[in-house]
């Protein structure tokens, strides 16, 4: 698996909304996956190969593994910053995430996701990412 020599990363910043918290006004643990997705979409946009591009080129990239380590809580009204860092891109899409409280700078969560490539027409798992995706990543390295 090809690991990136130079880091390609992107960040998103947003306010923690009421609909993301529990009765104690702490972000519900399942919402962190949504926060990862926000940053992943921004990273894919930077690469120039979004979910729409995947669909147009006949591929899907289902998530096959997610790891999350909660360090401290985000709360209602906090400003969150999520950094997505591309780790691997030739045989799978592996991204590392760091979620911070943007006001304090404190790390709140460490995450990682792995997505495999599936050819939509056949449903077949591919063990190499599409050439178009690899080319667009390499343009940024």
Automatic annotation (TrEMBL):
* Enzyme Commission number(s) from the entry: 3.1.2.-
Keyword annotations: Hydrolase
At the top of the EC hierarchy, this enzyme's class is hydrolase
Query: Per its UniProt record, what CDD domains does this chain match?
Result: 4HBT
Q: Which SUPFAM superfamilies match?
A: Thioesterase/thiol ester dehydrase-isomerase
Q: Superkingdom of the source?
A: Bacteria
Q: Is Hydrolase found in the keyword set?
A: yes
The record, for Pfam families, names:
4HBT_2 (PF13279)
Q: Single GO molecular-function term?
A: fatty acyl-CoA hydrolase activity
- Matching InterPro entries, A to Z? 4-hydroxybenzoyl-CoA_TE, HotDog_dom_sf, YbgC/YbaW
Would I find Hydrolase among this entry's keywords? yes
Q: Which Gene3D superfamilies match?
A: Hotdog Thioesterase (3.10.129.10)
Q: Belongs to which family?
A: Belongs to the 4-hydroxybenzoyl-CoA thioesterase family.
What PANTHER family has UniProt attached to this entry? 4-HYDROXYBENZOYL-COA THIOESTERASE FAMILY MEMBER, NOVEL THIOESTERASE SUPERFAMILY DOMAIN AND SAPOSIN A-TYPE DOMAIN CONTAINING PROTEIN (0610012H03RIK)
Q: What is this protein called?
A: Acyl-CoA thioester hydrolase
> From which source organism is this entry?
Treponema rectale
Upper classification of the source organism reads: Bacteria, Pseudomonadati, Spirochaetota, Spirochaetia, Spirochaetales
